[in-house]
Amino acid sequence: MNGHAYSIEIDQVSKRFGHGSEATLALDTVSLNIRTNEFFTLLGPSGCGKTTLLRMIAGFEEPTSGDIRLDGVSLTGRLPFQRPVNTVFQSYALFPHLTVEENVAFGLEMLGRDRAAVREAVTRMLALVKLSDYARRRPHQLSGGQQQRVALARALAPHPKVLLLDESLSALDLKLRKDMQVELKRLQRETGITFVFVTHDQEEALTMSDRIAVMGGGKLQQVGSPEEIYDRPVNRFVADFIGETSFLTAEARGSALEFGAAGRLAEGALGTTAQGPVALAARPERLRLSEDGGLTGVVSEVVYRGADTLYLVTLADGQNCRVRHTNRLGARERAVTGDRVRIAAEPGAFQLLTGEAGHA
Amino acid sequence: MRDPRTVLRRALLLAPTGLTLFVFMVIPMGLMGWMSVLEPDTYGGVRWHALSLDAYVQFWYERDLDDSLILNTAYMEIFLRSFLLAGFATLATLVLGFPTALYIALQDERTRQRLILLISIPFWTNLLVRTYAWMLLLRNGGLIDSGLGALGLGSGALDVLYTPTAVAIGFVYSFLPFMVLPIYTSLEKMDWRLVEAAFDLGANRWTALRRVVLPMALPGIAAGCLLVFIPALGSYYIPELLGGGKSLMIGNLIQNQFGTARNWPFGAALSFTLLALVLLAMIVYTRRFRQAPGE
Amino acid sequence: MPSIENRLWRFHGVAPTAWLAFVYLYLPIVILVVLSFNANKVATLWTGFSFDWYLRVLENDNILRATRNSLVVATGATVVSTFFATLAALAMASGPFRGKGVMNAMLGLPLLVPEIVTAVASLLFFLALGLELGLTTVLIAHIVFCLPFAYLPIRARLEGLDPRLAEAAADLYASRWQAFRRVTLPLILPGVVSGAMLAFIVSLDDFVITFFVAGAGATTLPVYIFGLIRMGITPEVNAISALLLMVSIAFVVLSYRVGRRPS
């Protein structure tokens, strides 16, 4: 083990494309640290800068400013083939003229490993991704899932310090994607390599990652464990991008939240001790329709979704709020459109959003 | 992107092709322009320091014995005939080529590949030899002549070879693939659901063809017309062989200046004029369709 | 996708016109080839099958010399133009840069300018330089007009190439040269071969430009055939023409097969 706690350090990195008036800032002073042997995910909508960041770690792009370090050593000026980092491309980019085993052997051959070592590694890698029977096939003879596993084996074969995965599961259908998610976690545990995964799929990010960095508009929005990101989003962007959220404004007074005409929630609905007008986010499953709830409103829509039912409620002060209930066998709907209902909240259900004022 | 090594590598890769084309294509054309404004030497060649517009004047006027200029229509007739023949060839190949391209585009994938190969083979095979084949067909006592005779339709001599008609037949034959291929390319890229939409909105086949297919094939049609018209206009051996060696078209006239007439500046002037006309057509085309006609 | 099977897509008169076009294109070729096997001395009167004229062609020293010239020029022009064109295509495929438009225009010139103009310009250029007309001048002229023909299939192949493949090679520790050798080159090779074949046919078939820039000793096959045709229609001309035609056709078909090979 090396002496550095961090595998990758992104230090104040910005990336500008184009020149003059046509320049766009793809990445705006992003700093973050990725720990050794961590499954780290860059999550965000398309155009948020996550792929640009990944390509800069791989060496396909150079930062306009800032520095990227691998195990404490700057990568600036090092070309892709001089970095112990391998990539699983979004479209896999398998060499169409080479067989599966030739693809997997490619990196090791370029590193000048001897024939026997290459053979041994290729056999081990193909066994690892369960493709030993397909060694002599060409990429176009494989299914999407198999191609994906070849791409993985090819990138893992040189045993890089860091493995980069660029939207690598997005081309697969749902069932294959679920299987590959499990597979990827297993591979990461077994190889002990740091994985940096780029995706726009929040569910994928939440299930697989040790930590997630949410990115938006070229900026880093929040870094944390999946629980932190889901339960304690720091701003509207993160709360909106991940999971379902109701955005509300209220007046924090003491430990209570006042919603004007809609009523008030007493005792610790807000996790913090902020005072005055506040912008809030709440997950629908942290709220419930209840006789003893402190807020009043009218159900505007009921959406049945199999495992649960979503109630859209217009509060008495005109704000909209979502409440979700898990469905049980034989249980009736709790309300229908037009019903007057009351809403209660779990302690800490409301998350304070920073960088925004409440009502003016 | 601005990495000096990248720039250097690119320059080195481009240098052989770029220099070859510049030295042996661009400079010669410039030189040709220059030589067209020089005086001819007696036995071919030019007088390098004697500037003269004679070559261009010669096209319009003849110098009489007393040095006065008389309007001479002989060369203009040749130009006019060239334009008419090339224009006819363009029109005829279009009439024949558009349905052919449409027919190919409507086939299934495999048949399309085969038919396109069938169109491409004449595109790449020796034009001189293919022109010669028409001499076999058209001459008196040739296949068409004796065929008509056997049917009792011939009156003895067909008398088509060595006439402008034979040249026109040869043009259409030679340049038909140049029309079909670009039209097919534009039809191939077409979204046929748009035609279905036209049918759905009450257009009959003819209207759908005229209002939907034709406008979308327009870049291909324009490219095809250019690819037929330009080589036809500058054609040399088709009129030479099928038209009977008379100074029938611009190409023959130009060749003659380097053969028996030995008037290089006039030959250069004719070539330069032809080049200017072609470049003009190119510019108009590119302005209108925003792509090179070959693409 | 529309299909001719579907009544909806049957436009009146389209199919007959297309078949007329195909007959028009192929009838003269077929007749020429058939007549080249004619035993009769009168070139267009069929009396019986014979290889005689082909044998006579193979014994004709002038034809053999012209053929040798044609092959030397075509081989030289193909090798040089394909090599140059491959380098150029690699550079042209690498994103936008200053001068790309100029380069494109120059590559288009030999395709768009009428042959007779190129021929006159080349002739005047060589004469002005004081070069003696001969195989060298023919070779230079051929390299020039073969360039775009060699270039286009290679460029098309590069266009269809996923830029991620080169990145993947770099990511897997291949240096620039190794990435080119091991990934790019094998993948564009069909385009290179196809381009070389087209260059070869175009060179072999050229008449006008060669006719202008060839000296007395540098007669190529088409130039020689032109001379024969002007003297009159003979069975010998039929045979040599048919030969040239068949070589061209074989090359085109082969070139298509190679160029269309899926990657």
Description:
The complex is a heterotrimer of chains A (360), B (295) and C (263). By secondary structure, chain A is of the alpha+beta class. Chain A folds into two domains: 229 residues, 3-Layer(aba) Sandwich (Rossmann fold); 109 residues, Nucleic acid-binding proteins (OB fold (Dihydrolipoamide Acetyltransferase, E2P), Beta Barrel). Chain A is built from eight helices and 20 strands. In chain B, helix 4 runs antiparallel to helix 7. By secondary structure, chain C is mainly α. Chain C folds into two domains: 32 residues, no CATH class; 208 residues, MetI-like fold, CATH 1.10.3720. The longest helix of chain C is centred in the first third of the chain and has 32 residues. At the B-C interface, helix 1, helix 3, helix 4, helix 5 and helix 7 of B face helix 1, helix 3, helix 4, helix 5 and helix 6 of C.
Sum up the structure in keywords.
A: 360 residues; alpha+beta; OB fold (Dihydrolipoamide Acetyltransferase, E2P); 5-stranded antiparallel sheet; B: mainly alpha; MetI-like fold; two-stranded antiparallel ribbon; 5% strand; Mo/tungstate-bd_C_term_dom (chain A); ATP binding (chain A); transport (chain A); ABC_transporter-like_CS (chain A); EC 7.6.2.11 (chain A)
Oligomer: heterotrimer
What is the highest CATH level, the class of the largest domain in chain A? Alpha Beta
The fold-level CATH name of the domain at 79-262 in chain B is: MetI-like fold
CATH homologous superfamily annotation of the domain at 79-262 in chain B:
MetI-like
Query: Proportion of β residues of chain A?
Result: 25-35%
CATH architecture of the largest domain in chain A: 3-Layer(aba) Sandwich
Task: Output the CATH topology of the largest domain in chain A.
Answer: Rossmann fold
What is the element layout, followed by pairings?
The complex is a heterotrimer of chains A (360), B (295) and C (263).
Chain A: E1 6-17, E2 24-35, E3 39-43, H1 50-58, E4 65-70, E5 73-74, E6 85-88, H2 100-110, H3 115-128, H4 144-156, E7 162-166, H5 174-191, E8 194-199, H6 202-208, E9 211-216, E10 219-224, H7 226-231, H8 236-241, E11 246-253, E12 256-258, E13 264-265, E14 276-282, E15 287-289, E16 295-304, E17 308-315, E18 320-326, E19 340-345, E20 350-352
Parallel strand pairs in A: 3-8, 3-9, 6-7, 7-8
Antiparallel strand pairs in A: 1-2, 1-4, 4-5, 9-10, 11-12, 11-14, 12-13, 14-20, 15-19, 16-17, 16-19, 17-18
Helix pairs in contact in A: 2-3, 2-4, 3-4
Chain B: H1 4-35, E1 38-40, E2 46-51, H2 54-60, E3 61-63, E4 69-71, H3 74-105, H4 109-124, H5 127-138, H6 143-150, H7 164-188, H8 193-200, H9 205-233, H10 237-242, H11 250-258, H12 264-289
Antiparallel strand pairs in B: 1-2, 3-4
Helix pairs in contact in B: 1-12, 2-12, 3-7, 3-9, 4-7, 7-9, 8-9, 9-12, 11-12
Chain C: H1 14-36, H2 52-59, H3 61-92, H4 100-112, H5 115-129, H6 135-159, H7 163-171, H8 176-205, H9 208-213, H10 221-231, H11 235-259
Helix pairs in contact in C: 1-11, 2-11, 3-6, 3-8, 3-10, 4-6, 6-8, 7-8, 8-11
